[in-house]
Amino acid sequence: MLIYALLGFLNYCPMTGYELKQFMDDSTAFFWHARLSQIYTTLKKMEVQGLVESEVEPQEDRPDRRVYTITEGGQQMLREWLETPLTELQPHKEHLLLKFFFSAQIDKDTLLTQLRLKRKLHQDRLAVYQEDTHNTLQQIAGNSPEIKKDVLLWEATIRYGILFEEMSIKWLNEQIENIERHFD
Amino acid sequence: MLIYALLGFLNYCPMTGYELKQFMDDSTAFFWHARLSQIYTTLKKMEVQGLVESEVEPQEDRPDRRVYTITEGGQQMLREWLETPLTELQPHKEHLLLKFFFSAQIDKDTLLTQLRLKRKLHQDRLAVYQEDTHNTLQQIAGNSPEIKKDVLLWEATIRYGILFEEMSIKWLNEQIENIERHFD
DNA sequence: CATCTCATGTAACTGGTTACATGATTCG
DNA sequence: CGAATCATGTAACCAGTTACATGAGATG
Fold first, then answer.
1. What is the CB neighbour count within 10 angstroms for residue A144?
2. How many beta carbons lie within 10 A of that of residue B55, not counting itself?
3. C-alpha–C-alpha distance, residues A102 and B153, integer Å
4. 3 state DSSP class of B173
5. Chain A, 114-173: which CBs lie within 7 Å of strand D?
6. CA–C1' A34–D3 (A)
7. Is B68 in contact with B14 (CB distance < 8 Å)?
8. b or e along B147-177 (b: 16 or more beta carbons within 10 Å of the residue's beta carbon)?
9. Which residues of B touch A79 (CB under 8 A)?
10. Which chain D nucleotides are covered by protein, judged by CB under 7 A?
């Protein structure tokens, strides 16, 4: 799947692996992320498959940059993927739920501490979405009307992040009360 | 992480890999799942580490069963994990958000079709949580008062599932309207 | 007659993480 | 003076998926 993320970014403009990582961290990170090492190896494979092409830009006093450009084949593959609907829900893994599921013998206060700590993490994340991320997207977007649609979609992903964090906090509040009252 | 799930189940009673898979599918599947092949190989590794022990039960007309039992070392490891709080949010990957993020050039109706299809999937899943899963847990639980705490926690995980699906549907409804009105 | 259930496993592969290595420049 | 930034990559490893293999009995 990472190849689609990389194609998606390269479809805006040519970039290096390093820059792709930065764009990801600033935009899709909360629903799609990758390490630099994986980005570099994936780009290499994509070039072999003919989805991207690269050119080395020599630099003085800095390492040379390898700039990747999407090919027509890459654009076609991206488009096909974007147009193909998802027909199944993807499985999720939730660490906390797994722990929670097996915690019947755990001390009440230990459990409550864990839930409150997790709630704090979600509250902090929520704050980030409500401030930072919105600003970051605005900056990337500038005021260019030609990417009006892009901005609409980007903001929708942040909206998802906000709803997700609010939902998590709601569940944690419910369970904290639930445990406080009935876990004896 | 799978080892903790397996330890958690084996802490209730000794079981075969095949049975572990069934219990998972009937209970934790929506927040933790694994294939049989992974379960078998993981159990083998766990035995080498001394977390579980196995014995073969010969059977006639059926393949022999290899029954795994948790060891004291395994119980201790499980307990330590359960008592250690999570200090960071785990990263998520959301296919649909990734596609959505790059879909500015996609046809409006194609996009709407995808969102409506996804909404249907979440609605169906929500129905499962509200009926089936609840019943399944009740069956597993029986009426034994000694697992009252377990049942409380198990129901809390279903509650999470319900809130998650409701949140997903809410976001999809919002975005369907958003696209219908402003995506031109 | 085909498919499902019971029950085990191995092998090849893909996706992703961690650690290692290099080296100049800039910032606090 | 130490840490962060720019910029590339490789190698070893771990987690998880897919496909293969076996074979009897029950269910529809």
1. 10
2. 10
3. 8
4. helix
5. none
6. 24
7. yes
8. bebbbebbbbbbebbbbbbbbbbebbeebbe
9. 105
10. 6-11, 15-20, 22-25
Nearest CA in chain B to A172: B160
Q: End-to-end alpha-carbon separation of chain B, Å?
A: 46
Rounded to whole angstroms, the Cα distance separating B121 from B129 reads 13
Nearest nucleotide relative to B1: CA against C1': D15
Q: Give pLDDT tens digits along chain A (184 positions).
A: 999 999 999 999 999 999 999 999 999 999 999 999 999 999 999 999 999 999 998 887 778 899 999 999 999 999 999 999 999 999 999 999 999 999 999 999 999 999 999 999 999 999 999 886 666 666 666 667 778 899 999 999 999 999 999 999 999 999 999 999 999 8
Q: What is the pLDDT of residues B13-70, one digit of tens each?
A: 999 999 999 999 999 999 999 999 999 999 999 999 999 999 998 887 778 899 999 9
B142 touches strand D (CB under 7 A): no
